[in-house]
């Protein structure tokens, strides 16, 4: 596949649980939007997905707010 200096990298962080079909649709849509809004050739759009769970998030204060028992000391770092 021919690529040039117009490569764009898109990193997506999202909750796990999407099907392969949903991910494929996401990749296609990101590629379409990159072309429509920035003129980036589809061959130059690289997408990576990182999936995680609720426990993988801290939304401030060193607390895992979505963890069970997040009000306890065990949820704090």
From TrEMBL:
Protein's name according to its UniProt entry: 4-oxalocrotonate tautomerase family enzyme
Where exactly are the transmembrane stretches of this chain?
Answer: none
What organism is the protein native to?
Answer: Nocardiopsis mwathae
